[in-house]
Amino acid sequence: MRIKGIRLQIIVCFLLISGFESAAQRKVIQFSGLIVSGEQSYGVPYASVYVPRTTRGAITNDVGFFSFPLLIGDTCIVRSVGFRPQKYIIPDDGRVSISVVLYLQSDTTLLPEVEILPFPTEADFKKAFLALRLPETDMNRMRQNLNAKVLARMQFNLGMDGGLNHLYFVNQQSFSTVNQNFIPNTSQILNPFAWGQFIKSVKKGELNRRREKEEGD
């Protein structure tokens, strides 16, 4: 048992050393880019861009931009709420920096409909509804509101709507047009200039001349 344990530890140490050596041999580059979505390619803010099982990663800013160093051959995962995750593998093409534009597709999840009721079952609801007893004061108030006399008084005090106001205005205009020749003209009686001309004619004797002329005719 001890020999098997020692062998297992040796194998684990060998794998770790080989992994560190391979990671040390890989080149470090600067990885930057823009995360967009939609037909207008709007930037996706606060999306996560990271390499799984490592501490390498970054968060996009308000316009969807990110930048951080990583190793050639790393597999980056891009995640954001409401979008499908995307994978990008860093190529070994000799560049010291890589800039990309990654497009995320919307991921819409339709949740089943949930109906919230105060009763656990429909039978309990029917039972509670049939057992419901309204207060007597509410019943009395309902009977008073539906009283025929109350409804008639409300109808009598109801104001005119637009149609009735228009009908009243048209009737008033018709009445004024029909009776305009039967109403005496009192504008001259209250006219001070007319009274002044009348007094002057009396002083000059024009009224007596008119009477003599009428008697002579």
Task: Tell me about this structure.
By secondary structure, this protein is α+β, with helices and mostly antiparallel strands. The chain folds into three domains: 2-103, Immunoglobulin-like (Sandwich), CATH 2.60.40.1120; 111-183, no CATH class; 184-217. Helices cover 43% and strands 19% of the residues. It is built from seven helices and eight strands; from the N terminus they run H-E-E-E-E-E-E-E-E-H-H-H-H-H-H. It has helices spanning 2-25, 122-130, 136-145, 148-156, 162-178, 192-204, 206-216, and strands at 28-37, 42-43, 48-50, 57-59, 65-71, 75-79, 86-89, 97-103. Strands 1, 2, 5 and 8 form a four-stranded mixed beta sheet that branches. Strands 4-3-6-7 form a four-stranded antiparallel beta sheet, with no helix packed on it. The protein is elongated.
- Provide the CATH top-level class of the largest domain: Mainly Beta
Give the helix/strand class.
Answer: alpha+beta
CATH architecture type of the largest domain: Sandwich
Characterize the biggest β-sheet.
4 strands, mixed
User: C-alpha Rg, in Å?
Assistant: 50 Å
Query: Which bin fits the share of residues in helices?
Result: 40-55%
Order of helices and strands: HEEEEEEEEHHHHHH
Distance separating the two termini: 163 Å
Q: Bin the strand percentage.
A: 15-25%
**Low-pLDDT residue spans:** 14-24
**Bulk shape:** elongated
Average pLDDT works out at 79
Domains (count): 3
Q: Specify the number of helices.
A: 7
CATH topology of the largest domain: Immunoglobulin-like
Please, what is the CATH homologous superfamily of the largest domain?
A: Carboxypeptidase-like, regulatory domain
Tally of strands? 8
